[in-house]
Amino acid sequence: MSITENEARKVAHLARIRVEDEALPALAQELSSILQFMEQLNEVDVEGVEPMTGVTPMRLKRRDDVVTTGEMADKVLSNAPDAREGFFAVPKVVE
Amino acid sequence: MSDLNKLGIEGARDALKQGGVTSVELTDACLQAIEDAGALNAFVHGTPDMARDMAKAADQRIKSGDATAMTGIPLGIKDLFCVRGVPTQAASGILRGFRPEYESTVTHNLWDAGAVMLGKLNMDEFAMGSSNESSTYGPAVNPWQGRDGAKLTAGGSSGGSASAVAADLCLAATGTDTGGSIRQPAALTGIVGLKPTYGRVSRWGVIAYASSLDQAGPMTKSVRDAAIMLGAMASVDEKDSTSANIPVPDFEAAITGDIRGQKIGIPREYRMEGMPADIDALWRQGAEMLRDAGAEIVDISLPHTKYALPAYYVIAPAEASSNLARYDGVRYGHRAKLGQGDGIVDMYEKTRAEGFGPEVQRRVMIGTYVLSAGFYDAYYNRARKVRALIKRDFDQAFADGVDAILAPATPSAAFPLGSAKDGDPVAMYLNDVFTVTLNLAGLPGIAVPVGQDADGLPLGLQMIGRPFEEGALLNQASVLERAAGFVAKPDRWW
């Protein structure tokens, strides 16, 4: 299966990665060659096989739904590129 | 004693116990070796002050009689592990300046045992790569040189760990393995690398690549060292919901050197077309060594082997695209400079385009594609079904009575840096052909240095064990190690 420039633009946007228009043809070609490599999977008979999620056959662990930690806003914010008054600061979200 | 940095964990432990050497002396020897080895680009963030403080504390602890096997042992830590207050950026530009406020469970366990932190080690960006060339720090270099002094890859993604251990900059190092990232670099540098069973070692605080495949493990100078270090790294951890509730045994005690009567499987599907004669010969020699030690060598079949790579390159990018969604320029790391009128989506897109390197961008986009509406079943679900079949192949082999499997670790010896630069990404993916199968099945595997190629470069073999039987695997590997008697070291040029 090959990916068109338009599809490459769409997937880049879904991934939230800016790709300039002039880079789209090369990207489309690269993604196509990787997908082509994956096409081999179509040779396998997977009739009746359950898709595997994890390697250990165990029920996901549960814990009580209670607060176990917190009260460390300064630590949470210490690596933020822009933090003000105890919040993460971002550009305008709502028009 | 001179050249203390050349010791392994076992040797250093015994010397520390006898009092002939101190952790401060060991640590200083390593710090000097690191300072002299800038050309290897293995250590990317040094922590000498922390190292000396930890070494002093370790010497106190040894004096007080409260030491563990890892007390006072200077280690290098892959840049993927969060260490409190120490730069941790998964070799990515997007995490430049990030200093975690918390400690990964693995490093917490190691410091608890008294190990000493020398610094952070180079790797492929977000552990995506097989040559360490996707690192924002530039590639780690293999201490083994090619013909005419060619600079070779130390492998990837744990290339800095492999280079540092092979060049004696530390006694051992941590690595992580998602598709071969411990075993491939270990094999290319002539050291031992162990990927434990999925769930044996906590993933908490280890920056995620593909969560259903990632597993941390030791990279060491001997099989026994790997056993000692795994014992300190592993734990049952409430903070990792996939940490297996299975007690950590004494792995070192399992090394008896006796494998008489055990069945070692040779998977016929691993005999690939175009495999170099050196690798093929090494594999045969390895089987002979195990036979001479009293094991029975049996031919086995793992029929879905061929499909492991394409399945891996669907599943791993799918998980990566989800895991790496968190790097958005809001909570940590890099944020792009925004133009007038740029909104939040511009911020995300510019930040990620600037912060992620080409291979990471590629995998995030492939992952996004295979998870997108209309393609989820055709790619992602199909790959997960093939994964189930790959695991079933191994289950069948073990059910038939095989104790371990012997296979090559890599399709070639270390290759020159830059040789794959302009090639297609798929060619680089082929490096993982012998290693990804285990990650898909969750099994433990170990790379052991066994021989050298015509150019004198190290070659390794891989042994694959039953789930949660790392002790038995280490014992089998120790027999291979002893029979191979690999003692070669790289000539120092750096």
Task: Give your account of this protein's structure.
The complex is a heterodimer of chains A (95) and B (494). Chain A has a domain at 5-38. Chain A has three helices and two strands. Chain A has helices spanning 5-14, 24-38, 73-77; strands at residues 83-84, 87-88. In chain A, strands 1-2 form a two-stranded antiparallel sheet. Chain B is of the alpha/beta class. Chain B is 37% helix and 12% strand. Chain B has helices spanning 9-18, 23-35, 48-63, 105-112, 159-166, 183-189, 223-233, 277-292, 308-323, 344-355, 358-371, 376-399, 425-429, 436-441, 470-484, and strands at residues 43-46, 74-78, 116-121, 172-177, 192-195, 215-220, 263-267, 296-300, 404-408, 445-452, 458-464. In chain B, helix 8 links the parallel strand 7 and strand 8.
Topology:
The complex is a heterodimer of chains A (95) and B (494).
Chain A: H1 5-14, H2 24-38, H3 73-77, E1 83-84, E2 87-88
Antiparallel strand pairs in A: 1-2
Chain B: H1 9-18, H2 23-35, E1 43-46, H3 48-63, E2 74-78, H4 105-112, E3 116-121, H5 159-166, E4 172-177, H6 183-189, E5 192-195, E6 215-220, H7 223-233, E7 263-267, H8 277-292, E8 296-300, H9 308-323, H10 344-355, H11 358-371, H12 376-399, E9 404-408, H13 425-429, H14 436-441, E10 445-452, E11 458-464, H15 470-484
Parallel strand pairs in B: 2-3, 2-4, 7-8, 7-9
Antiparallel strand pairs in B: 1-3, 4-6, 5-6, 5-10, 9-11, 10-11
